[in-house]
Write a structure and sequence with these properties.
Number of strands: 3
Organism: Streptomyces olivoverticillatus
Largest sheet: 3 strands, antiparallel
Pfam family, one: DUF1059
Structural class: alpha+beta
Protein name: DUF1059 domain-containing protein
Number of domains: 1
Distance between the termini: 13 Å
InterPro entries: DUF1059 (IPR009409)
Number of helices: 2
Radius of gyration: 11 Å
Length: 61
């Protein structure tokens, strides 16, 4: 299975966060959502999760 990467630098942000999360897709989606809520003060909504899912990329070897 291809690991996925969520790179906070690729999301619109005023804080210029540099966090990168890698793992299986559902793990990354969960962790990235928790990060967006706790650090960036977003509301956990289906729209947020879909936006994050759209930003996920395959991990480069």
């Amino acid at each position: 299975m291809t690991r996925k990467v969520a790179d906070c630098r690729k999301a619109p942000s005023e804080s210029h966060c540099s966090l990168t999360i890698a793992g299986e897709e559902e793990e990354v989606l969960k962790a990235a959502t928790e990060h967006a809520v706790s650090v960036h003060k977003h509301e956990d909504t289906p729209e947020l999760r879909e936006m994050i899912r759209g930003l996920l990329e395959d991990e480069k070897s």
